[in-house]
């Protein structure tokens, strides 16, 4: 074994460094005698067991490990490896039969090149009168699994194709009725499916400032400055801000992750959440036509949100005093790949946090809110998704997804009217679709033993105790097992769920906890017998609760690409394990239904979807009561003299 030396990460949850990734790859290549046919799907930190992390002491050593997924393109075989960087050796190597790992970034580039170079594809273009294959955009789409032998045995791609007028043009304005079927292991075009559009859309729809015509004027600059620097402090990937302390993580599949969240309360460091992440997201389309009806993209498990992250830019993606974190990973050859500024962190003003005017004395007290923003943005073909974690001064935590980018478009087949979507241009159609996001939260309210209660607000029964017929109260129901904890939003009862530690009470004798405040949501429209719901069972319900299991990380299972279904969260919950007063994981699914508008074209204004974790009896009173007044010269009107601001 070649002698390697590498400085190891100083905390069990510190993401793998560049040196650690290169060392792990080198060790695995040498010990397993890997060849050029062995492609590195992902190289990431193998997070230690929870008890190791929670018991961590800087004075004690811990085993530093990398988890690696390898695909052999000749044998079409997937392997999982664990490399100990402390011992500098492979400690585990196993074949995982019958699965396809997520699509590698290199494969997307290679697939486009292979399709453009294919004589069969060029002939199909010629039949459409297109003589510029170099201007064709080939967007790699996973094929799903429809029960065929090919789906089960070949690593496939089913790209959608579009035509640019030049290399800077918005090609999504010109979808083509061609679908090449590609073997990703051999990069061979197996066949080209040819369909018919009434007319290939040809009108240009661009969005760059040099092509949209006169730009509006009269917009004055808004400056955001922090002359004394930010209020947060950073040690590696550990962050402290306004009583909050947490760690930032990042990997090729999930992208941004949040770890070991605690709140400093009257001298106590109180745990709130051990790990939070986007577990999976899936985008099902509602068009039954032959080109569109297979579109069910698992953007995390099939494509990798992390490996598709943007390099963020000051003043565009983030504004203010910014701290960036790079995303470090490996490409399919095991070479280092760094996404510069993959994560952005900054503070921002968030309006009034609290205010009261005493009209008798004319005294006014007002405090402005600020929040800490940790974000990452990924481009998945035509769509952009921004993932934002917000931490607030009043103890709230929020997760939000911002959806923007470009619609996935199609032409109209002969005799077709846009029943399953809307026209966004002449002969140009955008199909209806949905976006589902599942967030996995390993909750840790003042310790590992937590419970979930469903709270419904219900009217009091009519009678002597309710003489004005106006009374209502909050009814709490303990969710004791996994099956009982499969729940849905109910607007009629203003339903919410609170996660509590019944073993810890506040000064009022109430169990400490946090509640999930839901935002926009929906249900899937696909049939229960559809391939979608077999593969993405987690989208059938909004709330799931499972006991902690370090191997249960992804709501769709570890390998959703081309999987027939039946794996992941819905399968685990069938065990009906107890989840009361124990170490639990809470999974929240939220959905956005998108019926496209002309106003969404040629680039979509951002849509927002998310939820909030709000303290419920976690504190004895408002934790924001001790915020100091803001300086009048910066924030308050000079016409008001008694407004709670400092002179």
Automatic annotation (TrEMBL):
One Gene Ontology BP term is: amine metabolic process
* Post-translational changes noted in the entry: Topaquinone (TPQ) is generated by copper-dependent autoxidation of a specific tyrosyl residue.
Domain Copper amine oxidase N2-terminal residue range list: 11-94
Record-annotated Copper amine oxidase catalytic domain positions = 223-625
**Could you name the domain of life of the organism this protein comes from?**
Bacteria
Q: Where is the Copper amine oxidase N3-terminal domain?
A: 101-195
Kindly list the cofactors needed. Cu cation
Instruction: Give the positions the UniProt entry annotates as the active site.
Output: 299, 383
- The EC number(s) attached to this protein equal 1.4.3.-
| Binding note for cofactor | Contains 1 topaquinone per subunit.
Which keywords appear in this protein's UniProt record, sorted alphabetically?
A: Copper, Disulfide bond, Metal-binding, Oxidoreductase, TPQ
2',4',5'-topaquinone PTM positions read 383
One Pfam family, short name: Cu_amine_oxidN3
Q: Name one GO molecular function term.
A: quinone binding
Q: Per the similarity annotation, which family is this? A: Belongs to the copper/topaquinone oxidase family.
Description of how the protein assembles with itself and partners: Homodimer.
**Which NCBIfam families does this UniProt record tie to the protein?**
PRK11504.1 (NF008559)
Which PANTHER family does the protein's record reference?
A: AMINE OXIDASE (PTHR10638:SF41), COPPER AMINE OXIDASE (PTHR10638)
Entry protein name: Amine oxidase
Q: Which organism is it from?
A: Paenibacillus durus ATCC 35681
Q: Which gene encodes it?
A: tynA
């Amino acid at each position: 074994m070649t002698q390697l030396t590498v400085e190891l990460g100083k905390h069990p949850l510190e993401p793998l460094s560049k040196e650690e990734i290169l060392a792990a790859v080198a060790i695995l290549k040498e010990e397993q005698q890997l060849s050029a046919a062995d492609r590195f799907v992902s190289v990431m930190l193998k997070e230690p067991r929870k008890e190791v992390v929670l018991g961590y002491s800087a004075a004690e050593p811990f085993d530093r490990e990398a988890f690696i997924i390898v695909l052999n393109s000749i044998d079409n075989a997937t392997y999982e490896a664990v490399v100990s960087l402390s011992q500098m050796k492979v400690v585990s190597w196993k074949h995982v039969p019958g699965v396809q790992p997520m699509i590698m970034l290199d494969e997307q580039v290679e697939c486009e090149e292979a399709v453009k170079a294919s004589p069969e594809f060029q002939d199909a273009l010629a039949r459409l009168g297109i003589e510029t294959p170099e201007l064709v955009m080939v967007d790699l789409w996973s094929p799903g699994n429809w029960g065929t032998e090919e789906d089960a045995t070949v690593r496939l791609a089913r790209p959608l194709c579009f035509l640019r007028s030049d290399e800077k043009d918005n090609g999504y304005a010109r979808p083509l009725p061609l679908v090449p079927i590609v073997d990703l292991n051999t990069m061979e075009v197996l066949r080209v499916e040819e369909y018919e559009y009434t007319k290939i859309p040809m009108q240009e729809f661009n969005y760059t400032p040099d092509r949209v015509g006169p730009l509006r004027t009269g917009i004055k600059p808004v400056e955001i400055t922090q002359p004394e620097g930010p209020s947060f402090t950073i040690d590696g990937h550990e962050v402290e801000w306004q009583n909050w302390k947490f760690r930032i993580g990042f990997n090729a599949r999930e992208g941004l992750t949040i770890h070991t969240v605690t709140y400093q309360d009257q001298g106590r460091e109180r745990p709130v959440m051990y790990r939070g992440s986007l577990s999976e997201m899936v985008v099902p389309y509602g068009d039954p036509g032959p080109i569109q009806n297979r579109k069910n993209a698992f953007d995390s498990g099939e494509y990798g949100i992390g490996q598709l992250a943007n390099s963020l830019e000051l003043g565009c993606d983030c504004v203010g005093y910014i701290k960036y974190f790079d995303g470090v990973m490996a490409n399919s050859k095991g070479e280092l790949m760094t996404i510069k500024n993959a994560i952005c962190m900054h503070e921002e003003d968030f309006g009034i946090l609290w205010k009261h005017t005493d009209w008798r004395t004319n005294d006014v007290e007002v405090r402005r809110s600020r929040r800490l923003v940790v974000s990452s943005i990924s481009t998945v073909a035509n769509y952009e998704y921004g993932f934002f974690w917000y931490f607030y001064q009043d103890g709230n935590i929020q997760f939000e997804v911002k959806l923007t980018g470009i619609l996935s478009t199609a032409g109209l087949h002969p005799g077709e009217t846009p029943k399953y979507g809307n026209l966004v241009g002449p002969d140009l159609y955008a199909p209806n679709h949905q976006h589902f996001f599942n967030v996995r939260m390993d909750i840790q309210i003042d310790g590992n033993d937590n419970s979930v209660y469903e709270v419904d607000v219900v009217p009091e029964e009519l009678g002597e105790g309710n003489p004005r017929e106006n009374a209502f109260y909050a009814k709490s129901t303990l969710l004791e097992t996994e099956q009982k904890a499969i729940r849905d939003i109910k607007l009629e009862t203003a339903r919410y769920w609170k996660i509590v530690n019944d073993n810890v009470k506040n000064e009022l004798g109430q169990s400490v906890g946090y509640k999930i405040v839901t935002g926009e949501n929906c249900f899937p429209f696909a049939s229960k017998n559809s391939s979608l719901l077999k593969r993405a069972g987690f989208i059938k319900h909004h709330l799931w609760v499972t006991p902690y299991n370090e191997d249960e990380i992804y709501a769709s299972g570890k390998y959703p690409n081309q999987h027939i279904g039946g794996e992941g969260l819905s399968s685990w919950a069938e065990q009906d394990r107890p989840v009361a007063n124990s170490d639990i994981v809470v999974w929240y699914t939220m959905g956005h239904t998108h019926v496209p508008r002309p106003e969404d074209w040629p680039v979509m204004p951002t849509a927002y979807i998310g939820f909030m974790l709000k303290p419920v009896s976690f504190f004895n009173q408002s934790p924001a009561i001790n915020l100091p007044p803001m300086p009048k010269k910066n924030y308050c009107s000079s016409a008001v003299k008694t407004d709670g601001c400092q002179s």
